[in-house]
Specification:
alpha+beta; 14 strands; flat
């Protein structure tokens, strides 16, 4: 492992934290120097860890906390411990040393807050979904019966983008303690790994549903879900949209078009874990649109322990996620969940308020069902 490789590892693991702290003088170089000096030991230990967790032919990185990440984390904490002296050597003096150190500690400290919130929101796989998707409750049927690929539900709904008539009614939650709530959106992926014997490619079934606002027919290749940062689960909407109030949010919704549910995008979030490495994130998390939260006057649960927004009556919008049904690739790799999913559910009276905020003719019950198969090189599993 050369210095160039160490620099790439530091960028991979630490760039967001170093940028958030305005690249404190000397810290990046100190981390690189410490890790370069231990490069042979790191390479050996990381290789041994990978060998124990996957087969030699596997191209997937096991979801584990490896020695390279551990060593880089130790190195930045050691470097940060001497940050006052490093700044002084660089000519940066301050009369408020403790305040400065506290600021750097916040920016440079590791954080698993997003992963912890997601794990606290994990539930057993719910059966709540549109009745047209009832057969999808049987996970990965093709694993035991080749004739089940592609799954009948995917074939039947492949060209369906919206439900109409009575089929467009709200999907009611059946699981306690949220019985009678309305499912605002759902996403689920069912996937199996590629196998060499018997020969089988990677296969994925993707299901997404959600309420959308649109005066025009929805494009067949679009999704009933948007994308948004996850911040609304942790911060009041006033901090994310300064100056906004409920009346202004209502005006925004008058002209709004698009999905009411979004997929969480963790890019540029401070200390968000890297997917597939260490204490990682769940693949899919759903988030309500910020304008909806402002219109409803909701706030994160306090203390923030899960994906939950509340009002004076208690929980109002809840995000759930699930995973399960372990599979393997027929080799020596660890078992991997075949099913990952998430949904967004709202209290019945909250749903009625949302329903009243839009033109009823513009609200559509969207769906998108897709299936894919391919080799490791052209079909992404994680």
């Amino acid at each position: 492992m050369s210095r160039g490789q160490v620099e790439r590892l530091v960028r991979f693991y630490l760039d967001d934290r170093l940028a958030d702290s305005n690249e404190p003088p000397g810290v990046r170089e100190a981390v690189i120097q410490q890790v370069v000096d231990r490069v042979d030991n790191i390479k050996q230990r990381s290789g041994e860890q990978i060998d124990q967790l996957c087969s030699p032919s596997s191209q997937r990185i096991p979801d584990a906390y490896f020695n390279d990440e551990e060593e880089i984390e130790n190195a930045i904490q050691l470097a940060a411990a001497g940050i006052r002296a490093a700044r002084a050597r660089a000519g940066f003096l301050t009369a408020y040393a403790r305040t400065m150190e506290a600021s750097y500690a916040f920016s440079l400290a590791p954080s698993a807050k997003w992963a912890l919130l997601e794990e606290s929101s994990r539930v057993p796989r719910p059966s709540t979904r549109h009745h047209f998707l009832a057969r999808s409750l049987t996970p990965i049927p093709w694993q035991d019966n080749e004739a089940e690929w592609p799954p009948p539900v995917a074939v039947e709904l492949e060209r369906t983008r919206t439900f109409a008539g009575q089929d467009a009614g709200p999907v009611r939650v059946v699981e306690r303690p949220f019985g009678g709530w309305v499912q605002l959106g759902m996403f689920e992926r069912q996937a199996t790994l590629g196998r060499s014997y018997p020969k089988q490619p990677i296969r994925q079934l993707l299901i997404s549903t959600g309420l959308e606002v649109s005066a025009e027919p929805l494009r067949i290749d679009s999704m009933p879900l948007g994308t948004n940062p996850p911040n609304i689960w942790m911060f009041p909407y006033e901090h994310l949209l300064p100056g906004i109030h409920q009346a202004e949010a209502a005006e925004i919704l008058d002209d709004f078009e698009g999905p009411l549910t979004t997929m969480a995008d963790y890019r540029h979030q401070r200390s968000a874990p890297h997917r597939g490495r260490g204490a990682g994130l769940h693949p899919f998390v759903l988030v309500p649109r910020l304008e909806l939260v402002a219109f409803l006057g909701l706030r994160p649960e306090s203390p923030t322990m899960r994906h939950c927004l509340v009002d004076g009556k208690g929980p109002a919008i809840v995000g759930r996620n699930w995973r399960g049904f372990l599979v393997h690739d027929g080799s020596y790799s660890p078992l991997t969940p075949a099913v990952h999913g998430a949904d967004l559910i709202v209290r019945p009276d909250i749903y009625e308020r949302l329903n009243g905020a839009f033109d009823h003719e513009g609200i559509q019950s969207g769906i998108r069902v897709q299936h894919f198969e391919g080799e490791d090189s052209d079909t992404e599993y994680d």
